[in-house]
Specification:
Elements (H helix, E strand, L loop, with lengths): L12 H6 L5 E5 H10 L5 E6 L6 E6 L15 E4 L9 H8 L7 E4 L2 H9 L5 E5 H10 L7 E5 L10 E6 H6 L1 H20 L1 H11 L5 H16 L2 H6 L6 H14 L8 H4 L15
Parallel strand pairs: 4-5, 4-6
Antiparallel strand pairs: 1-8, 2-8, 3-6, 3-7
Length: about 280
């Protein structure tokens, strides 16, 4: 028996789980690293990675001079909501991708006006989750042939993305419940990759106001770029490569100004994951 409540953004779940208000949550592992860097005693850990590559992206319009080359944003104006997860990685991304930050103008914008401003040409590009911002931009009347998506993970910034997190007290007291939940999540994602239409149908049953065609496109984008990655196909869904997680912490020292000595073992606990054979993605 699981009750799921919606949250505002990929950061809000972290303190909710840490305080025990929620036993489990879904949020950005990079923000979790920052959270634990500030207070390592917080009772929250990631236990399953959902986005092996994060959907962090800069989305621009080709007609405004932005291409899939990261350096094409030089000389351009980019719209960035201050709390946006992709924008949070800007400092590290400019280093990883070799962008001259001094040649880029950042304009603070609100989430509701982000895509409309790009559609109207008030900015040349925006920061966001690719599978959300691209579809929102298309809903504003911008065609596929005018949209350029610069995926940060494909251009040098090798981070993890959103993950399942657990309250450590709850996990210690209810290990079988946590293991059972993760087993169900792994099976659900494997089923949705194998039969995307069935995955969309399951979502529509719980939110009838959604557009099935849009959600299918969103799922296809997420599967291709964030979920069914080469690493996941080879190693199974949900786990981490400790060397990659350690390297990502080093990136976050640049982008988020980490001050402590948080390590992979302080962030991720693999002990609740199902065996690899139960986490294979078709």
């Amino acid at each position: 028996n699981v009750t799921i409540d919606s949250g505002a953004g990929s950061v809000e779940a972290i303190p909710r789980v840490a305080t025990g208000a929620y036993q489990l949550g879904f949020g950005d592992i990079n923000s979790l690293i920052k959270f634990l860097d500030e207070d390592p005693a917080q009772k929250v850990r990631a236990v399953m990675v959902v986005y092996e590559r994060p959907p962090f992206a800069i989305i621009g319009r080709k007609s405004l001079g932005v291409t899939e080359d990261p350096k094409s944003v030089e000389g351009k104006k980019l719209g960035a909501p201050p709390p946006d997860g992709a924008f949070a990685q800007w400092k590290a991304f400019v280093q990883a991708a070799g962008i001259d930050e001094s040649k880029v103008t950042i304009e603070s914008v609100g989430f509701p006006v982000r895509e409309p401003m790009l559609a109207q040409g008030q900015v040349d590009g925006i920061f966001g989750f690719a599978f959300s911002s691209v579809l929102n931009l298309k809903a504003q009347g911008i065609g596929d042939d005018d949209i350029a998506t610069i995926m940060m993970a494909e251009n040098g910034l090798d981070l993890y993305g959103n993950s399942i997190m657990v309250n450590t007290d709850f996990a210690a007291q209810n290990p079988d419940a946590v293991k059972g939940f993760l087993r169900a999540v792994a099976k659900g994602f494997a089923d949705a990759v194998a039969d995307p239409d069935a995955g969309v149908t399951a979502v529509m049953k719980r939110n009838e106001v959604l557009d099935a065609a849009i959600e299918r496109e969103r799922l296809d984008m997420a599967n291709a770029r964030n979920i069914r990655t080469p690493y996941v196909v080879e190693n199974g869904f949900g786990g981490v490569d400790e060397a990659k997680l350690a390297a990502s912490i080093d990136y976050l020292k640049v982008s988020m100004g980490l001050k402590g000595a948080v390590g992979p073992g302080d962030v991720f606990d693999a002990s609740y994951l199902p065996p690899k054979e139960e986490r294979l993605i078709p």
